[in-house]
Design brief:
alpha+beta, two-stranded antiparallel sheet, 2 helices, 26% helix
């Protein structure tokens, strides 16, 4: 069994406290949580890591999120 990436736990903790973002430990980037995306109300097409809309507006498959991005 593989260990989930650190960002997974950080995302869950951020959502639990109602935060709209958290800091990715590998890149230092600020990442939108699932809550921020739900507040927006639709997929923006950027291939976001926590998109709750199934990446509906992502135009190309190569724009899907990678394990360590967004």
């Amino acid at each position: 069994m593989t260990t989930p990436p650190l960002w997974h736990a950080l995302h869950e903790a951020a959502c639990a406290r109602g935060a709209m973002t958290y800091r990715d430990p590998e890149t230092g980037y600020s990442v939108f949580t699932r809550l921020a995306h739900l507040k927006r109300g639709h997929c923006c097409g950027s291939g976001c890591r926590h998109c709750p809309f199934g990446h509906a507006a992502v135009a190309r498959p190569d724009q899907q999120p990678q394990e360590n991005t967004r």
